[in-house]
Amino acid sequence: MRSLQLLRSLTASSLQEARATRLPYLQGTRRVSTRVQAAAPESNRESGDRSTTQADKVFPARLYVYSICPYCCKVRAFMDYHRLPYSMTEVNPLTKRELRFSADYKKVPIAVLNSGEQVNDSDRIMDRLRQLLVQGGRAGLSPEPTAHELHWRTWANDNVAKLLPPNIYRTLSESLEAFEYISASPHFSALERQLLRWSGAVMMRALQPKMRRKYGLEAGQEREALMQRLEAFMHGAMPGAAAVGGARDRQQQTGLRPFSGGDKPDMADLTLYGMLRAVQGMRTSRDVMSAMPTVAEWYQRVQEAVREQQR
């Protein structure tokens, strides 16, 4: 019953977030920051710019993303939690025409700062944002991520983000579900939306067995493998949390921390939360949250912490 209540709560939250930001969140390689030679054209810009203050003008003005990219989503989670103003451009996964301004880098996410600086790769974007926050006087942050944060961020990159595609493309129906976000994107024409959704879904479903075998998984083992990784995070990043089921009252009684970061989310929390937010509302998410109440409760706590920061 408790798991069902949590699942309903998370589903309702998903709908609220979807209405607020219709375009939520494949993988970037390690690249140093560069500078764009020209600003991205106005035609690439979608609505959704957050209001900026004078102090916020040093922060990223635009993110180039795929909505179901876990690497893009972890950057968004970091920016949302730290109240950094940004807007998004949804990148056409077939043509990538929105990335023409980027001469030698054609992966997402890409962040273009208001200064014209272009930062490639999700980890480098998060580290650059952290530096800017510290330079701007943001309290409670060290200039560099802690060893704990770096370890679990890298772990999530290697163990969770890479297992999401084999899960969300298991069947054609799940693959179509994953590409549903394209149907709601005003950035594409009606014809493009149908073409991208169906061609993308069919192509990724065809590639799923190869992705699955790459990680040593047999057909039908995708969910189990993902849940094993999530359980490892609960035990490793937050010792003892899984043993008590994550309930807040019991955490308060025993002194267990509700987040990897202790009393508040750190970069490790935001990384994994963002990755799971990329599949929020999909069958993968529903299966995981209903089977793992500890993960569902932790996810809800991070979600509430992010919302609280935005008030």
UniProtKB/TrEMBL annotation:
Residues 185-311 form the GST C-terminal domain. GO terms for cellular component: mitochondrion. InterPro entries: Glutathione-S-Trfase_C-like, Glutathione-S-Trfase_C_sf, Glutathione_S-Trfase, Glutathione_S-Trfase_N, PGES2, Thioredoxin-like_sf. One of its GO terms (molecular function) is prostaglandin-E synthase activity. Gene3D superfamilies: 1.20.1050.10, Glutaredoxin. Residues 32-53 are annotated as: Disordered. This is GST C-terminal domain-containing protein. It comes from Cyanidium caldarium (Red alga). The lineage of its organism: Eukaryota, Rhodophyta, Bangiophyceae, Cyanidiales, Cyanidiaceae.
